[in-house]
Design goal:
Helix content is about 25%, strand content about 30%. It has about 200 residues and is of the alpha+beta class. The protein is elongated, with a radius of gyration of 38 Å. The protein has a four-stranded antiparallel beta sheet, with no helix packed on it. A three-stranded antiparallel beta sheet has the order 1-10-9, with no helix packed on it. Strands 2-3-4 form a three-stranded antiparallel beta sheet, with no helix packed on it. It has two domains: about 60 residues; about 110 residues, Rieske [2Fe-2S] iron-sulphur domain (Rieske Iron-sulfur Protein, 3-layer Sandwich).
Length: about 200
């Protein structure tokens, strides 16, 4: 076996690829590290991009207010001839609240004024939201929960309610009375629509 000179051994040592403790060369580890970093950033970017619509979908009901109700037809204006006694009607309304579609029946009262104009009141007491009922004997609206009393045109007479009965937006269209139902905040002096 021939002996190698010091120069040959030194030259072969310097020309040999360097290795790391894991067993790969330094240039191989640089490429692997860059590839791992690039794939990690790419994965995080794709996951972030895909999560945006999911987060928006999950939070959408919290950021959206419930839809307004549509106009409800109460019938021909000729059906409302009584000027002293409010006429009770029940309407069905549909509201979309977040992902829910809610159909509910609401009681309203229609009154015809001495001048012939029609007014529509909600049957919800502005105190705590109890149902106000018409009392034929006393010729008044009465809240059975806390004895709130209102005139036949919804004016507060006595009791704890902070304001008159709430009127609803109404209109006459093609000879029919139409109303748009809304809910109002309780326990405040002014009529405030709830979102």
């Amino acid at each position: 076996m021939a002996r190698r000179s010091k120069e040959e051994v030194s030259e072969s040592f310097h020309n040999a690829p360097s290795s790391s403790p894991e067993g790969g060369s330094a240039s191989e580890l640089g490429r692997r590290g860059f590839l791992a970093w690039f794939l990690g950033i790419g994965t995080v970017s794709v996951a972030g991009a895909l999560s945006v619509p999911l987060v928006r979908f999950a939070l959408d009901p919290l950021t959206r207010t419930s839809t307004e109700t549509e106009w409800s037809d109460l019938g021909s204006v000729d059906d409302f001839t009584e000027t002293e006694v409010p006429q009770k009607r029940t309407i069905s309304i549909i509201q979309i609240d977040g992902w829910r579609k809610v159909t509910s029946d609401k009681v309203i009262y229609v009154i015809k004024g001495a001048d012939g104009t029609l007014g529509v009141f909600t049957a919800v007491c502005p105190h705590l939201g109890c149902s106000v009922k018409w009392n034929d004997n006393n010729h008044q609206f009465k809240c059975p929960c806390h004895n709130g009393t209102f005139t036949n045109v919804g004016k507060l007479v006595s009791g704890p309610p902070p304001r008159d009965m709430d009127t609803l937006e109404s209109k006459v269209e093609d000879g029919h009375l139409k109303v748009r139902y809304q809910s109002f905040r309780n326990l405040v002096k002014t009529k405030e629509v709830m979102a």
